[in-house]
Amino acid sequence: TEDRWLSDSFYQKCLKVAQSNAQMDPVFAAEAYLNVALVDEQRGELIKALKHLEEYRRLSEQSIRLRIDANLQLTRVY
Q1: CA dihedral defined by 21, 24, 25, 26, rounded to 10 degrees?
Q2: Is pTM beyond 0.85 here?
Q3: What is the DSSP letter of 60?
Q4: Rounded CA separation 45/47 (Å)
Q5: What are the respective helix, strand and coil percentages of the chain, to the nearest 5?
Q6: How does pLDDT run across 2-45, given as a tens digit for each residue?
């Protein structure tokens, strides 16, 4: 928990990998966007968090569980 920069960096790297594979595995990419959005929210960067959550919602169309979570996350942050 004290090395938050390390986990943040890890999530950013995962997002870059997921973006390159978004066509092959949209659920993987959606979860990566969620993780980065949660990091942005913790930092107080709500606009960035919302943008990542909107992308999370868009990519989660194939999974009912993720789509419901995306809607709840967006509602919570808005």
Answers
A1: 80
A2: no
A3: G
A4: 6
A5: 85, 0, 15
A6: 677 777 788 888 788 877 766 778 888 898 899 999 999 999 99
